[in-house]
UniProtKB/TrEMBL annotation:
Pfam family of the protein (one): CN_hydrolase
Domain of life: Eukaryota
Protein name: Nitrilase-like protein
Xref: InterPro entries: C-N_Hydrolase, C-N_Hydrolase_sf
CN hydrolase domain ranges (all copies): 10-239
Amino acid sequence: MSRPDSAAAVRIACGQFCATPNPAANLASCTKLAQLAAAGGARALFLPEASDYISRSAGETLSLCQPAASSEFVLGLRALAQQHGMAIIAGIHTPPASASASSSGRVRNTCVYISEEGAVAAAYDKVHLFDIDLPACGICFDLRFPEPARWLVARGAQLLCYPSAFTVPTGRAHWELLLRARAVEGQVWVVAPAQVGRHTEGRRSWGGACVVDPWGEVRGRCRAWDELDEEVCLVDVDLEVLRRVRRECPLRRREDVYPAI
């Protein structure tokens, strides 16, 4: 890889792998991705949605779900972050906040930000849960809604992350299109780690993890649907590119007419 173009650039790794119902095996895959990222000089590693496990049934989802504070998978990621001095962002399952939600068989689809010191510094629960008429599928649905992205950009966001597990049909049709749309309309960097391959009988993910710049150009991508090993793409996220795009194409000058959400 070449050196970053400017002092404002930070090298990141956007990863993909095929999670299974075995959290220990998934942690081993994430360990390989962390090693690839560190060898490439990345300061942060972005991992997919549901990196801890993808189950075969709702009952298995509940049985495997653990609090982030005690999850062996999360503890493993924290150790990797500290070992490599690299932030790690990953999608996991966490128990619901209330007993009533727990009794209904629900879990939370959570994204955690682990600092380079190995601490869970922030967490986000997915807002738009899967709601599409396809059999035996799961999807990172937030990407389809521009409003949360606009809300974040209006409050200073310079990079949006969408850890995902897109189905093969929706991934083939919409994955890169939606990522580029979020980048162009927000004039932000978009990082999209992804699940890929055949997880269980009847459950497949598209893959194609990628990084898109504020002009809508794909700066790095992993391969789409295939039976693949762990893979990362390394990209220098340069905030000077963001500033130049916003300066030369000033979309925010009409917020008096179109106020930010």
